[in-house]
Amino acid sequence: MRHIISLLMENESGALSRVAGLFSARAYNIESLTVAPTEDATLSRMTIVTSGSEEVIEQIIKQLNKLVDVVKVLDLNDGRFIERELMLVKVKATGVHREEMKRMGDIFRGRIIDVADASYTIELTGSGAKLDAFLEAIDKTAILETVRTGASGIGRGDRILKL
Amino acid sequence: MQLNGAEIVIRSLHEEKVEFVFGYPGGAVLNIYDAIFQQDGFKHILVRHEQAAVHAADAYARSTGRVGVALVTSGPGATNAITGIATAYMDSVPLVVLSGQVPTAAIGQDAFQECDMVGITRPCVKHNFLVKDVKDLAATIKKAFYIAASGRPGPVVVDIPKDITAHTARFEYPESVSLRSYNPVLKGHSGQIKKALKLLLDAKRPMIYTGGGVVLGNASELLIKLVKQLGYPMTNTLMGLGGYPATDKQCLGMLGMHGTLEANMAMQECDVLLAVGARFDDRVIGNTAHFLDHPRKIIHIDVDPSSISKRVKVDVPIVGDINNVLTDMLELLAESDKTPNVAALKTWWQQIEAWRDRNCLNFNRDSVIIKPQYVVEKLWEVTKGEAYVTSDVGQHQMWAAQYYKFDQPRRWINSGGLGTMGVGLPYAMGVQLAFPEAKVACITGEGSIQMNIQELSTCKQYHLPIKVILLNNRYLGMVRQWQEFFYGNRYSESYMDSLPDFVKLAEAYGHVGMNIEQTSDVEGALKEAFAMKDRFVFLNFLTDQKENVFPMVPNGKGLSEIILAEDL
């Protein structure tokens, strides 16, 4: 099953490679991994999207907790949570595409953030599934380039990951 | 007080009350070696290869329970240390390895003798540090010692660029460490301990299975108390030998691939299993599915939560320091009105004795050609079971584990997890330095001993009266055994031709060498060797070339599918 694991770790060089190294050394899946500093400059927040049996996920959480640089680990799937990912898509915007792309962007609540003679760049946020759906919905031959951040996640309501 | 980085390293090691630093000098650590020259707080042991430095520090740690320290230079010095570090990591041995690094400004420039030590050791250390500012040096060393020794112990690398050892800073050694991201759980959950005890007392066919955690956690005393009070059978893993007296009736011997029939059968057929500081390794439980086929309730005590339910799902996990958990468990047991089920236990013991009566470790003691088992058995007698025994890896290691009956913890020093050939001699050095008066025997094979044979020179320099017990069968025996069983007797590259004359070799290094070629000479040779209290003696026993290690649970088979020597 797909799990989103959120963690806080020391904002130190090498911390990211400890996490990445753990996943490759123990043959765990990584679908995506995002990391950035938090409002507390000494801490980084990482979101890892992974998949595996319940036993594998349990091991992943334990192994992450074992890393000396990792301060706190939360499996978002243990409760209700929100997941968001940002995607930038550059699409052909000539002829029939020009109007069509704008319309599709609107339907998916995307925003056109760069306009050129022959292309648009559309910014979209949502769950990974929503971004996939957008790419499915538009003419594949019109896609020039995509870049996605990978998922970030946060617990709903009182679920807070903080020191 | 302003000190340079090199002096800070030395002073920090003094603060940690380090007795020995095992090392080898080189460009990046010259400042540190200069500071070593000017101190006498610890003794530096100059090895002949960095791998041996780490192994020796590792054995010092295993035998004393203190943190071992090694010092190596950058680049090749650092990479030579890797096998030693990985060996210690797999067996959870507390080590601090200090490595030199090229100057900060040269890092990443492919400088002479540069190697990304933090990167290359990441998967085989508990933690590692690159010191980038001399002001952080003392605190980093303090953290390294704390992390290495606490929780589940392990090796910690501190990589120190050369310029840092020259820069100066105010020296202040921190009194304590607190890391917000590192807080090992030490106290076991009382509810879980209660549940565990109830299960144990309800058991009809109980079994206690203990590993290296008991030895590392200094929990032997309490383990003996618990096992004695319950009257249950117990077994040790390879790493747990000595954690419970091997000569005691309740001890069924080692379990696993080359464990005894009684230990493996009891492990398979028990209805409640208490695992203490052991990790259900593949060499211990054999085929996992086969093991799980037999229903049993499992209680698992371990300081490392990730060891629990990693390979085998357990029913009652207890995370904590073994001493703490066993203390709580014994208290509860004393208060409990419940007692073990005597009638069921009697039947269970009858079954176990029937297995034990098969005498699975029997071998031909009348053979003229020396049986390797016989040498180990005689070694045990001659040393009255009190020696520190180090071993290398292979058949001889298994015979040592089977026939030397360890009654005390920290006497059996071997590479269980990584299975590193070549550890035996440097291990013996670390132990002999820690215990100068003790009898130290290194049981080895002619393959393994040649992997760190250069250390004969170190042994001479420091007058280490180690006794090397070479079980020389002219084969890479364990490889040959597998080829015999699973590869149609095709002995691919497992025969060693052109072996050195080990007696002359020992003599060339300034030691005593002895050849022993028949059974009747074994005991006399051992007595003669141990009588030479101040000499290093290399005993080359020419043993039966075709002897195999039994019992054996073939790879991929279940514990009850064990093969005995008599079955063939």
What topology emerges from the helices and strands here?
The complex is a heterodimer of chains A (163) and B (568).
Chain A: E1 2-10, H1 15-25, E2 32-37, E3 43-51, H2 54-66, E4 70-75, E5 81-92, H3 96-107, E6 111-115, E7 119-126, H4 128-137, E8 143-148, E9 152-155
Antiparallel strand pairs in A: 1-3, 1-4, 2-3, 5-7, 5-8, 5-9, 6-7
Chain B: E1 2-4, H1 5-15, E2 20-23, H2 30-37, E3 43-46, H3 50-64, E4 68-72, H4 76-90, E5 95-101, H5 117-121, E6 127-130, H6 137-149, E7 155-161, H7 162-166, E8 168-170, H8 190-202, E9 206-210, H9 212-216, H10 220-230, E10 234-236, E11 251-254, H11 261-269, E12 272-276, H12 282-285, H13 288-293, E13 297-302, E14 316-319, H14 322-335, H15 342-356, H16 372-382, E15 388-391, H17 395-403, E16 412-413, H18 424-434, E17 440-444, H19 456-461, E18 467-472, H20 477-486, H21 502-508, E19 512-516, H22 519-531, E20 537-542
Parallel strand pairs in B: 2-3, 2-4, 4-5, 5-7, 6-7, 9-10, 9-12, 10-11, 12-13, 13-14, 15-16, 15-17, 17-18, 18-20, 19-20
Antiparallel strand pairs in B: 1-8
Describe the fold and architecture:
The complex is a heterodimer of chains A (163) and B (568). With 163 residues, chain A is of the alpha+beta class. Chain A is built from 4 helices and 9 strands; from the N terminus they run E-H-E-E-H-E-E-H-E-E-H-E-E. In chain A, the strands form 2 sheets. In chain A, strands 5, 6, 7, 8 and 9 form a 5-stranded antiparallel sheet that branches. In chain A, strands 2-3-1-4 form a 4-stranded antiparallel sheet, with helices on one face. In chain A, a hairpin with a 3-residue loop joins strand 6 and strand 7. With 568 residues, chain B is an alpha/beta fold. In chain B, the strands form 4 sheets. In chain B, strands 3-2-4-5-7-6 form a 6-stranded parallel sheet, with helices on both faces. In chain B, strands 11-10-9-12-13-14 form a 6-stranded parallel sheet, sandwiched between helices. In chain B, strands 16-15-17-18-20-19 form a 6-stranded parallel sheet, sandwiched between helices. At the A-B interface, helix 1 and helix 2 of A face loops of B.
